[in-house]
Amino acid sequence: MRAILYVLTSMAVIGLAFWAYRENYATQQALSEADKLHANIRAAHARLAVLKAEWAYQNRPERLRDLAVLNFDRLGLLPLQPDQFGAVDQVAYPPAPLLPITDPVDVSTMNAPEEDPL
User: Fold this and answer.
1) pTM (predicted TM-score)
2) Is residue 62 situated within a structural domain?
3) For 60-81, what is each residue's pLDDT tens digit?
4) Which GO biological process entries does UniProt record here (predicted)?
5) Full residue range of the structural domain in which residue 47 is found
6) Residue 108 falls inside a structural domain
7) In 3-state terms, what secondary structure has residue 22?
8) Is 112's pLDDT higher than 60?
9) For residue 30, is it within any domain?
């Protein structure tokens, strides 16, 4: 009886060791993939920072003012004035859409009601 218990215990230990070995490699692979994803995220953040810096550089007010002056003949851009803005009640909103006709009735083929002879 002890021999069977020893064999079963040793088989359980071998099975658990095999399971732990596989879990270790699966964990190492998951950590490697997570590191790759973190590297991609860091690279994307760096690209985004560069794009934001380029956007800020291109949208400098003095540069835009110079471009507006340079292209005035073609674009006709002028500085905004306070009287150019309208009020909310001046906005023309589109009319509400008509309700769809879901069950039409053809009135031309309907018979007129007969009169009661009283």
Assistant:
1) 0.49
2) yes
3) 999 998 998 999 999 888 888 8
4) cell division
5) 2-79
6) no
7) helix
8) no
9) yes
